[in-house]
Amino acid sequence: MIWISGTDQSEKMIGTPESESIDARDGNDTVYAGAGDDIVIGSGGSDLLFGQEGDDTLFSDSTVNVPRDKVVAGNDVLDGGPGDDYLVAGDGHDLMTGGAGKDRFLFRYHDPKTEGSVQPVQIADFDARQDKFVFDAKDLLGSMSADGNFVNHSTGGLGGAADTFFQGRAADANGEHVLVLTDQSFGDSSEAAASVNNEKPGDIIVYNDDQYGSVILAYVDSEDHAHPFAQLSNVEDTSEQFFSRDNFIFT
Fold first, then answer.
1. Does the keyword Secreted apply (predicted)?
2. FRET pair for 232, CA 20 to 30 Å: which of 86, 131, 137, 244?
């Protein structure tokens, strides 16, 4: 693998047909990784990262796994291109497009509980038939992942799907850890959380949001309260796609 490092200035970086690890560093950078199975790290700044051909891994910010209470990241654009890609969200208002292939949208060090004017990460082309959400779960591997932001709801350890899953009417949900609500839309994520029974901190609710006009993923942090952390901008209604527990992976 070829290693390429940028500077702390804003710059344009173009990869080769080989597999590379590219660290753009600080600055508002544009990276075209080219062919090959590449690793691209946006680091600081608001970056444009294009994986292009190959099975690529794109990091919006850094690879450091640290939960944060305040947003310090840029607003990045990640485009995987053709191939089975991994796109890793940061804490900014990122836009992620997987492109053709079986893609994974990772919330590795994204904090789902950010407040204020921060908008959710936007996913432009999620396809429940082949794509997955991946959540960095706290304490899944003991001290190795103690800084994860999400509660571990894995069925069988590292890389496991959601242990309990529900898709249907809000009134019929009852304590499942991942819920997809299909019968109505809500004004915000807390209204969605209040509509279901026995929700707990760490639960993930997928619902139709009136404000965004599309499907939202929200993280429950307390009774009847949740934070929106991801928007599926290509999905207007949860009934358009058939989600399953295998779309929600904990690692």
1. yes
2. 137
Residue 226 has pLDDT above 60, yes or no: yes
- Torsions phi, psi of 35, nearest 5? -70, 165
The predicted-structure confidence for 33-84, as pLDDT tens digits, reads as follows: 999 999 999 988 999 999 999 999 999 987 755 544 444 568 999 999 999 9
Cβ-based neighbour number of residue 38 at 10 Å: 32
Tokens of 100: 């053709």
Distances 191 to 1, 174, 181, 220 between C-alpha atoms, Å: 48, 16, 12, 11
User: Is the CB of residue 4 less than 8 Å from the CB of residue 43?
Assistant: no
Give, in order, the Cα–Cα distances in Å from 223 to each of 69, 154, 192, 194: 20, 22, 11, 8
Provide CB contacts within 8 A for 213, sequence distance 6+. Answer: 236
Q: How far apart are CA 1 and CA 20, in angstroms?
A: 5
Distance CA 210, CA 189 (A): 10
Phi-psi region of 240 (alpha: psi -120 to 50; beta: other; left: phi over 0): alpha
DSSP 3-state of 144: helix
H helix or E strand, kind and range, residue 157: none
Counting every residue written for the chain, the total comes to 251
In 3D space, the residue among 235, 193, 194, 190 whose CA is nearest the CA of residue 213 turns out to be: 235
User: Cα–Cα distance between 154 and 137 in angstroms, integer?
Assistant: 9
The two three-digit tokens of residue 200, written as one number: 């707990």
- CA 129, 132, 136 angle in degrees (round to 5)? 165
Cα–Cα distance for residue pair 103/128, rounded to 1 Å: 10
